[in-house]
Design a protein that fits this description.
Keywords: Iron, Iron storage, Metal-binding, Oxidoreductase. It contains 4 helices and no strands.
Length: 152
């Protein structure tokens, strides 16, 4: 998703999150492969295909797609955790715990961005303007006049 916004000079505030996550996910994949090879485990990677979307549409649509992808990854991690628990693999459970925590944090961030974008769209419709306000990129002020920032 990060490549879609790469050329935009006025990219939404969550684009750095997409860029960071692309790098983080690649590093995590390498950690998983290394972990499995060190334990001489059989490597069976699930198929996680690219979304069938050429145009991400609105900011809200891009966030929804990102949420779906994060939830799918979280589901795969939960399945691995269940399997490790069933097989009493405590080292694997500990290894997965770190990744599951990060996934939950990412999902919460995207949920925040989702509600923020929905509120911006609602305010835009209420104002009756045909142009998207400058704040719609996620930069700027909330409806209360505060700086928009994700929950901690």
């Amino acid at each position: 998703m990060t490549c879609y916004y790469d050329e935009e000079s006025d990219a939404p505030v969550y684009v750095p999150f997409f860029q960071d996550q692309a790098e983080v996910k690649r590093a995590h994949a390498k950690q998983f492969i290394k972990y499995l090879k060190e334990r001489q485990s059989k490597i069976c990677l699930p198929v996680t295909k690219r979304p069938d979307v050429e145009y991400w549409g609105t900011d809200l649509q891009a966030i929804v797609i990102a949420q779906e992808m994060e939830k799918e990854l979280h589901k795969h991690l939960q399945e691995l955790k269940s399997l490790a628990s069933k097989n009493s693999e405590t080292d694997r459970l500990e290894f997965l715990k770190n990744f599951l925590g990060k996934q939950k944090r990412n999902i919460k961030y995207l949920e925040y961005q989702h509600s923020y974008q929905k509120e911006l769209e609602r305010l835009t419709v209420e104002e009756g303007t045909s142009e998207e306000p400058a704040e719609a990129s996620g930069r700027g002020l909330t409806s209360e006049g505060n700086t928009a920032s994700p929950p901690l």
